[in-house]
Fold each of these.
Amino acid sequence: MKKIIHLITAFAFLGMLISCGNNSQNIKKKQGALGSNAAEKVYVAPGEYDEYYAFISGGFSGQLSVYGLPSGRLFKVIPVFSQDAEKAWGYNEETKPMLNTSHGFVPWDDAHHPDISQTNGVVDGRWVFINGNNTPRIAKIDLTTFETTEIIEIPNSAGNHSSSFVTENTEYVVAGTRFSVPIPQRDMPIKEYKGNFKGSLSFISVDPEDGGMDLKFQIMMPGFDYDLAHPGRGASHGWFFFSTYNTEEASTLMEVNASQNDKDFIAAVNWKKAEEYIKAGKGKMMPAKYAHNVYNEKTHTATSTMKDEVLMLDASELPGLVYLLPTPKSPHGCDVDPSGEYIVGNGKLSANLTIHSFTKMLAAIEAKKFDGEAYGIPILKFEDVLAGVVDQAGLGPLHTEFDGKGNAYTTFFISSEVVKWKLGTWEVVDRQPCYYSVGHLMIPGGNSREPFGDYVLAMNKITKDRYLPTGPEVTQSAQLYDISGDKMELLLDFPTIGEPHYAAGIRADIVMKNSKKIYKLEENEHPFAVKTEADTKVVRDGNVVHVYMTMIRSHFAPDNIEGIKVGDKVYFHVTNLEQDYDVPHGISMIGANTSELLIMPGQTETFLWEPKQVGVWPFYCTDFCSALHQEMQGYVRVSPA
Ligand code: CUK
Ligand code: CUA
């Protein structure tokens, strides 16, 4: 899908900038600093589509935002781990169970790393997975509806940072704990961390048909901090690689403690071996409390189930399950190239990048060339697994992506740049500054066997003067570079939602072909759905009242409700009878301790209203749905208890 370039319009736009007053001189100058055709390259004409979807994590916003590339236009914020009043996520009765955990209802999380499902090592556009760090969870977003349809809590984990990355056929979405904790959790002195606190790596299977997730097993690991991870692919399919720090196993990470060791590890986990051990009965069931929440698109409701045990494999007891690859200076990112041969460890306190060889790793394992077993797990010799070093590439390397043409791109947080280097020769071939202090970067399909190597998106931690000031808190931002030529070219800055940690990108047509446009009314199996106005009713059961309501342009039925009393619990179950694409209606009730509902055609949603005051109280449609939208309203009469 080649983007159509509208030269005339783009030039007119530039001309407009040039001809404006004094302030726009600055604007013009900034634009002028770029290559002359940067504007053309990101310009998507009105009515045209972008070439790529970019799913950008919202960090502390808890959500996942959907952008188009190359334009940088925001299309949607998909609510995942935080309540969202705009879409009633976590406010309506249907979705509240999605935010349930073993700690109760937890309507916030810190969303870091989205990853798109894959088939044969290629992104297939079926689902996006993303981790919640704080109360460890993995969510699945269905890309036919762009809605979160499953959230599974991760027990024996805290921080959940090395998550959520998928294997080559989405056999598993994998999560790793950041903090080591007592497993199982118990009351014990923090000072006794060493040897007692444990790490865990979680393998959540994904049903290839319906995408159903299941926490299949966990691997008990030494008490390190597990930072990031990536799957093997091609020859290394069946392995998973995790970067670690705090291999000193210190309970406090003041500088002195945490970085004593010159080298930490990348842990290489053989999950096919894990499956063999499970078949042989080597796993042990352990108590573990966690919630598994599923949203059903037919009933439009979520159910939350509490689980109480998990299958555990102990890495120190099962030979061949895990090996440790020494990696200098607190590795952060842990990235695997498209061939599956190279494992890049980005030591965040280093100027160099360490690249391990999967082939050499296998050879060293075969030859049993180990450097001790400090944690009950074989440690390989650094020199034996080393493929190469990118020397003095920059300061503070964090993350690496690949273009599928033999190049790698690494972000450097401290020196604030993206550095392009060659796999195999390890030479730096280009570098471009970032504004400022870049964290992750993303090439669409970059975490697969076949990246789409046209663009790289850098996600920055600091923006300072890049945008109009908005008080002390300014936006975070992303920057888009064209990488189709020898030299990277900065094309665009655009603001992002929350803190963009990681992103996942895919060619738009792969997702669009499965995009759902409408919920069919006849398929609506919501227990409180009504399919015609004739079936609407108000049913009282003690002090609980169920209002079976419908909405269609441009009225509610019923729209005058009497017989409600102060102290009642009134559930409004509202069905949108429309069957046209893009005709949602909303509803909100005065004084309701919840958000509005935004209901798609054919869908039913419910909110709870507990009237506190006698009177006649109005409700109205919150979405401008027709010329008579303003007439779409009603009254509820509330009498004394
Ligand atoms: S982390 Cu954000 S820059 Cu949570 Cu992926 Cu490395
Ligand atoms: Cu329905 Cu506005």
Amino acid sequence: MLNIRSIDPAALDLAKKADKDGIETVWDRYEKQQPQCGFGSLGLCCRHCIQGPCRIDPFGKGPEKGICGATADVIVARNLLRQVAAGAAAHVDHAYEAVEALKLAAEGKIDYPIADINKLKAIATGLGIETESKEPNVLALEVVQVAYEDMGNHQKRPMRWVSAHAPKQRLEVWESLGILPRNPDREIREAMHQTTMGMDADPVNLVLATAKQGLVDGYGGLKLATDMQDILFGTPAPVVTEANLGVLKEDYVNLIVHGHVPLLSEKIVQWAKTLSPEAEAVGAKGVQVAGICCSGNEVLMRQGVPLATNYLAQELAIVTGAVDTMVVDVQCIMPSLGQIASCYHTELITTMPIVKIPGATHIPFTLEHADEAAQEIVRKAIAAYARRDPNKVHIPDYRAKIMAGFSVEAIVGALSKLDADQPLKPLVDNIVNGNIVGVVATVGCNNVKVAQDIFHVEMVKELLKNNVLVVATGCSAHALAKAGMMNSEGAEKYAGESLKVVLTAIGEAAGLGAPLPPVLHMGSCVDNSRIGDLVTALAGYLGVDTAALPVAASAPEPQHEKALSIGTWAVTMGFTTHLGVVPPVLGSKQVTELLTAGLTDVIGGKFYVETDPQTAAHGLIEDICKKRKALGLDQ
Ligand code: SF4
Ligand code: FE2
């Protein structure tokens, strides 16, 4: 057994219950996997053709090449490119669904709103579309057309979602490297082709292709998905709620939404309210919806739905015995949930044609019948409530108050209370005068190799103490929310003196009557695009390249291929991008060197791997200070 499975008291409490209930969890399975394959860990195993698998001896005593002649450098670079392309594919697929939804909504064929006309206009304007006197649905269809043209682009031209939204200086860098993506599907296909047996054997070319996948992810995945979702459901504004498993309620029907795409979860939130009387009719006080992973973040940001927990404790949510239904869509869903749900009364519901889990009930989600599916799911939860066994229920009494909903628009809105004409000025002034040393974006997952949340929390404590403002998304945001870093008290407790002064000034001006939280929750994993938009705006305001900004990124506990693709995008934006878990690349000196140093000369950013939270925080601060110096801020 691992010494510490988590630092989240609710998870620790439930891990004990899981042991008592005889439930096997992710930590047990991790233990059974020990020792993990050394070749795989180093990226030195190739299964790209069926002459293999081939593996390279990292100690130089065994084979130095695969059967085809592929070296360690080639094998590692090919494996990485495939992983990053897979991460990008997940986000592009997500974005594509959101584009389809906007199209059908604009045509009046589905019962979805176009909630944010201002955002629609802003995006249309950014794409060079005339907005004057056009009906929202007409404008939406024109925006959709550009998105579809990007998806089906047969030309050599780059995606318009990239050329319209990326910083100018970055576009020049990417163009000079030949990594501007065309149609995202084509780029992902090409990466698959490029890495098959007998194809690219140049590690440098493969690493550049990986950087291109980062851009596919950043713009064809993250940015496109967020833009579409904001138009459909609204751009987030500050909301106040709670985080951690203590948000489940013994006397309510508890329905958890888990996964990533808000197209269904938005409907569930709506129907949970409407069907509340049916819950009351079976003796419950109502329906409590709570979220896991990014479906949770999405409905938190726009609807103020509380967060249940993050990736690593998804099984433990069911172990509470109080979850009547867990509905999942895509990504980060453990296949073990089916088995665990069968030990309690929980009804696990899958909804997507590409995510089916034995033991789960499958209720197909389609845009055309979303309301029916959502109603059926809420009713199943109400029915399951009646089957709940009170003897098995244990809801750990932990929850932290949180403020979330910090879209760029919300941040600019708060700052405009200080300077209505130039809202970014107060932020920039405080960066220039050193009250805010810099900004770090913490993103990504939990990883079972790290005690749940410890890296997020310990590293961020150190950053805040040193007056670094932190913005967060994904499961990192969950971790920091649970740890009490997303409320005003968190500013008092964790922020360094000068950061506290700024947070207090903004909080007072924005009418909170208290400081802004020291960690700003900017949303789901696709909402990393909001961080991209913020740094693009900051760079534009200052007239510098994003690579010059005192800004860094970190995925403290990365687990998914998506974390690698998001991280690669952050590197292409010119940021030092920290990873707290070593990715499978150390088998190649050349690839490791390119990723952690060699790329910097050409792209400005680099990966920084450090497995100790304190050291990582100081490494990032050092990087930020170098950038401050280069900008002439601290002479
Ligand atoms: Fe081995 Fe080359 Fe086939 Fe990979 S592509 S499995 S290294 S022969
Ligand atoms: Fe996520």
Amino acid sequence: MNKIFVCNIDELEEGEALKVDCGVNGIDALAVFNSQGNFFAMNDRCSHGNASMSEGYLEDDGTVECPLHAARFCLKSGKAMCMPATDPIQTFPVVIEDDALYVDMA
Ligand code: FES
């Protein structure tokens, strides 16, 4: 397993996001979210353009809105839920070990 350390679990509060350097599988950075106490990770780069999803807006329906053109993506699947984006964003499992958060790049 190729794990990227994110932070300690109590450093990512509910409704917050973190950008984490990655450098694995051609992915420069990851966006890691705490949505209603659940953790999610995706490629930080929007599938539509050059926007950082960690600067996006978490919605109560389990999506994140891109800060640039307001496309929304499912946190779990990465699916584009509305225009202008049509392509998904790759998502990754989040692993918790000893109160630390990791993203599993497999
Ligand atoms: Fe994200 Fe356009 S860059 S919707």
Amino acid sequence: SLSGDVGGLRLENPLILAAGILGTTGASMRRVALAGAGAVVTKSVGLEPRNGHPGPTVVRLGVGLINAMGLPNPSYRAFQDEIDIAREGGVPVVASIFGSCPEEFAEIASALDVDGFELNLSCPHAGGYGMEIGCDPANVEEITRAVRRAVNVPVWVKLTPNVTDIRVLGIAAQRGGANAVVAINTLKAMAIDVESGYPILGNVIGGLSGPAIKPVALRCVYELSGVLEIPVIGVGGVSCWQDAVEMIMAGAAGVQIGTALMGGLEVIRDITSGIIRFLDRKGWSLEEIRGIARRR
Ligand code: DHB
């Protein structure tokens, strides 16, 4: 069985819908839950409604995806209905939230009835939100503590990889009382159309996801789980069961999946059944392989 505790939530399996992709509506999250995810994370919501950046907002590359949506959302005030629909999928629903200061994060979290929170401290390109605050360990600690005091459900802190040493951010989240850290958010990236010479994204800079970032994400999970007491949830480019097993072997308690879902929701059950068959073949348990890369 793949069931167990992931960052304070009891999950049937450790494969979780990553924030952003398919987390905009209750109906899409319910679909991902029914397709076999152990939990779902919403698209980030904030204090006020936002339209997001002008387009194009997404570039598809062979190695992944660059997006600069600009944190579009209907405000947390209009999001409880979506969460309630998502919950019909029968798995825990985690609300991804963003804000500009600890009080704003706490206000949003206090207002939502949900199974957990994931603090988006890492959007790579929304001025005043995300990375700008998520790169400063003192901010990470303060925001985490404010939300931790405001709610009675698990608080996960999603970290940006766009720093020299991600372990410093993980330690800050842990000091603030996080139940888990989630690593990694997207890497800052861009693409240029050579015919016109123009940057493709309306916002020029966006966040890179997909297979290109998996080795970076794996390194971050390995580094974080080496220094933290709290669990690390791995995310970044996971596309097959081997990728998920690598994350767990690097120390991950859970694994999130986003960009790979663009190829169809079947990948969720392909990955969970692949992990089960692998463990059977090796005679290993999930607990036995967690962090095994450090012990070899
Ligand atoms: C957006 C937010 C993110 O956290 C991210 O990694 C990429 C894009 C956005 O809404 O623009």
